[in-house]
Amino acid sequence: MDSSFFFGLSTMAYILAMMIYITYLAFRKTQIGITATTITIAGFVSQTLALLMRWKEFNEISGMGILRSAPLTNLFESLIFFVWCLILGYLIIEFKYKTRSFGAFVTPIAGLALAFIDLSGMSKEIHPLLPALQSNWLLAHVMMSFIAYATFALSFSTGLMYLIMKTDKRNETAYIFWSFTLGVFVTLMLAMGIDFLTFKVVVKPEEFIKSYMFRASFLNPSHSIKILSYVFITVIIFIIWRYGSILKKVLEKFAITADTLDEIAYKSIAIGFPIFTVGGLIFGALWADQAWGVYWSWDPKETWSLITWFIYAFYLHGRMIRGWRGKKVAIVAVTGFTAVIFTYLGVNLLLSGLHAYGEIE
Amino acid sequence: MEKERDKTIIDKIWKLLASVKLAIVIFALISLTSIVGTVLEQQAEPAKNIQVLTKIFGKSLAPTIYSIFEKLGFMDMYHSWWFIMLLILFSLNIVICSLERLPRIWKIIREPIRPVTEEQIKKFSINRDIVLKGKPDKIKNVVTEAIKNIGFNHAELKEDKGYQIYSQKGNYTRLGVFITHVSILIILLGAVIGVFFGFKGFVNIPEGKSYSVAFSRTEPLNQAEEDERDKILHAIGASSDNILNAAMQLGMNEKSLRAKMRRYGIQPLGFSIRNDDFNVDFYSGSDMPKEYRSWLTIIDKGKEVMKKSIEVNAPLTYRGITFYQASYGMNPNAHGEFIIKVTSQSGASETKQMHLGDKFIIPGTNIEGTIKDFSPALSRDQEGRFFTYAEMMNNPAVLIDFREGGKDKYSGWILKRYPATWRLPEGYIVEFMDLWGVQYTGLQVRKDPGVWVVYLGCITIAVGLYMAFFMSHRKLWVRMIEEKNNTRVLIGATSNKNRAAFERKINKMIVLISKRQEGEK
Ligand code: HEM
Fold first, then answer.
1. How many whole angstroms separate alpha carbon B117 and alpha carbon B124?
2. What region does B343 belong to: left with phi over 0, alpha with psi -120 to 50, or beta?
3. Lower CB density within 10 Å: C or N end of chain A?
4. B24–A contact, CB cutoff 8 A
């Protein structure tokens, strides 16, 4: 049994847990809830085992020492780590706030992310590190960034749920904001799923982002598919906007109040912000300083991390202004996580495309 | 009258500069403008950004939009006057906000905790009311112990029919936010020191050569400029780094020479640095680099004062100037030295330095080797023919002809990376160690006296954030009043943050008190 066996096990556990959590939402039977929790924990344990085993395997192959062999060398591996943090954060919330209502939202993200990674076949490959990447600061930087991203993801979902619960007029800014954001997220997730099914490629994640992502939809060479994709996203956004009140009714069934959602969003950011400051910005700067002799160079990725940081600073300070607590800062929390995603995907996908030479269409 | 109005205007400005509203406006402005800065490539050639804008706005609009953005300074926005003004405003905001709030925070911190009345104690966000058997005198000891157990030092007060114990903890953690804000100023100060008193440069040093300057100019020079620069470099070299002498030699005064040096980005180091050797290590069996390493020597006032090898992530620092392994390259026209190590069967070895065409004898024999050919990156095609697949020294190899007593014996390629090719049929080992003198190492050179200030700020911001988010100021009051031979214990407590955690502590304390009480019965 190797690490991929346990990865597979945890993927199945999360997908199974997702179905049970949804059943739980419908019937609200305690036994069903306990079953869902148990399966999630089993998936988490199995994923932990898988991570440790992969670490050990990498160490044996690369011979670079324990620290340098942490399974965080590329985008897919860091995504796995992100899922791990997310589930850990979710389990903590489930026990602290004694609510299982988020399970139905968190486990699908975890299960789908792991399934995608599995589909693209990365789990067996192990790439040695380029010289610039052989740094303990980098390891600490990546690990802490992803822990912070997991907390930001939690504040994103709770912030979004807060907005859904607190708005009911379709012409309200906050309502339009959440329905648009949710529509874009759902569509992009679908588009990525279609990419995977269409191309079924085994490539490095950076290459996937650059050469394949959204090529089956928004970036397709065929104009009609492109236009169709934009029509599709508009329709999805419209449907969510039009029938958003149904979502609200579903959320109101949960035994959770808007205030609790607001509190969880704040607490997640209160934990994530210091971790992101130290791990994401400071350790990143230390690494750059050691590798290139510049602790800050305003390159797009660095700048986007800084933008993310400022958005969350905006959130923390916005809460202190009278009349801002509640919907306005929830919008900021949701925006913050879109910036996180852009730091990771957008910088590689959109900006490097823009900056590439000789590609005018 | 006039005076009064002045005052109110200044007051208004002061209030604005101290406000959190201004802070979030600045956060938004920095974020939004920075987004533009990541879309437009900074300090790039115009053509590049016109192309970027063409992709976004189309061919017809791009030049106009480019010239607008260009005028607004967006092509180098992080150094533009308005971005710097934004940062200054941001700093001012933090300074004034902190000045405004510090006295109040300080007062809260220094304020000793005072006993409270029964009505007050019931108003605290955490409060408990329990009745225990026994007199207050006894209960007091139990409570004192329990308070100590959850980490509080206490003060106590005798009351009419009992006691009151009160205590606070973590009042200094209220400084966390202040420390966080000051740290941002420290980091910005460090960055400013770096800009004014440091430089960033670059130097390519061939193996065996040394340099006493680095180059910080990134824009290309035209031919005339390049000639002038080379003349200056030559003069500096010839006068062994004495700028005054170099100026005399060039027939100008020191000031104008320094101005010229700034213009061409010539940064004198104040010492020399020599590249003794450069090497790339690859992961075995592939062309994926594992390590770039330069062996460097620092020569100060004619003396070798430091020898150190550097690699990516492990730089060298001397007299405040740091050298980073950044790149490398090859000068194929340089005359390198082949370094060949010959080991006989007995294990005795000898290292030779030679040029193309040179001959050497394997010690104790009359076998003679001749270096016939060199390839920086040798490979074989399908038919088994050798060819060179790269310009860099990815797989260096020498072709050596061996003769014995004037007769051809054998000949073959010896590859640096493959020990299997070093062994001769007789058991001698001819190892190709290096071709020395053709590669150069590219060093990033940096002097930044502000970096320690930046790191200091990083440490203090970590401390400040920890205090601000993970610690809290907690206050606790316990009143024990006799009631019909029993004791009524009233507990009141507050925490400025994370009340739930404090509540758990209080519950733990109550469990401790009850347990003790039962044990004593
Ligand atoms: C990027 C820069 C800044 C960072 C990282 C930062 C960080 C923080 C943090 C972490 C807190 C604590 C928030 C909480 O407990 O929820 C805070 C509070 C605060 N910040 Fe900032 N801050 C920044 C800039 C500013 C600026 C420019 C102002 C100017 C007005 C400001 C004013 C305040 C105030 C008034 C508080 C509340 C203090 C209190 O609760 O006693 N901050 N800041």
1. 12
2. beta
3. C
4. yes
Q: Where are the alpha helices (DSSP H) in B111-171?
A: 118-121, 136-149
A128 touches chain B (CB under 8 A): yes
Chain B residue at shortest CA distance from A296? B191
Phi, psi of B411, rounded to the nearest 5 degrees: -145, 150
CB contact at 8 A, B257 and B232? yes
For residue range B460-512, what is the model confidence (pLDDT) as tens digits?
999 999 999 999 999 999 999 988 888 899 999 999 988 888 998 899 888 88
CB contact, 8 Å: A311 with chain B? yes
Write down the residue that tokens 């906007």 correspond to: A241
ipTM, two decimals: 0.85
Residue of B25, B26, B27 to mutate when probing chain A, most A C-beta within 10 A: B27
Looking at the CA of residue B184, tell me the nearest atom of ligand 1. 2
Helix and strand element counts for chain B (H, E) = 13, 22
| CA pair distance A34, A338, nearest whole angstrom | 33
Q: What are the strands, taking DSSP E only, across B283-396?
A: 289-300, 303-311, 316-318, 321-330, 337-343, 349-354, 359-361, 367-375, 378-380, 386-388
A181: three-class secondary structure by DSSP: helix
- Nearest atom, ligand 1, residue A319 CA: 16
Token code pair at residue A43: 């998936």
Per-residue burial over B126-156, b if 16 or more Cβ lie within 10 Å, else e, is: bebeeebebebebbbebbbebbeebebeeeb
Which residue out of A275, A305, A308, A316 has the highest number of ligand 1 atoms within 8 Å of its CB and is therefore the one to mutate?
A: A316
Cα B304–chain centre separation: 29
Cβ atoms of residues B164 and B478 within 8 Å: yes
How many residues does this entry show for chain B? 521
First to last CA, chain A: 49
Residues with Cβ within 6 A of ligand 1?
Answer: A 313, 316-317, 320; B 19-20, 23, 90, 93-94, 97, 177, 180-181, 184, 465, 468
**HSE-CB for B509 with a 13 A CA cutoff:** 28
Q: Do B461 and A282 touch (CB under 8 A)?
A: yes
Q: Which helix (H) or strand (E) holds B429?
A: strand B429-436
Tokens of B365: 């024999």
The predicted-structure confidence for A33-76, as pLDDT tens digits, reads as follows: 899 999 999 999 999 998 888 888 777 776 666 666 777 776 67
CA–CA separation, B187 vs A286, rounded Å? 13
Taking the C-alpha atoms of residue B479 and residue B165, their distance in angstroms, rounded to an integer, is: 6
Interface subset of B 152-181, CB within 8 angstroms of A: none
Long-range contacts of A67-72 (CB under 8 A, 24+ apart): A67/A136, A67/A139, A68/A129, A68/A134, A68/A136, A68/A139, A70/A139, A70/A143, A72/A139, A72/A142, A72/A143, A72/A146
Report pLDDT digits (tens) over B243-288: 888 888 888 888 888 888 888 888 888 899 999 999 988 887 778 8
Mutation to probe ligand 1, out of B22, B102, B177 (largest number of atoms < 8 A from CB) = B177
Q: List all residues 6 or more positions away from A258 whose beta carbon is below 8 Å from its beta carbon.
A: A162, A165, A166
Asked if B465 lies within 8 A of A274 by C-beta distance, the reply is: yes
Nearest to A119 by CA among A18, A213, A45, A11: A11
CB B50 within 8 A of CB B62: yes
- Which of B24, B40, B216, B448 to mutate: most A Cβ within 10 Å? B24
The region, left, alpha or beta by phi > 0 then psi within -120 to 50, assigned to residue B111 is beta
Does residue A59 sit at the B interface (CB-CB below 8 Å)? no
Atom of ligand 1 nearest to the CA of B464: 10
Q: Does B131 touch chain A (CB under 8 A)?
A: no
**What distance in Å separates the CA atoms of residue B298 and residue B306, rounded to the nearest whole number?**
5
Structure-block tokens of residue B107: 């007062």
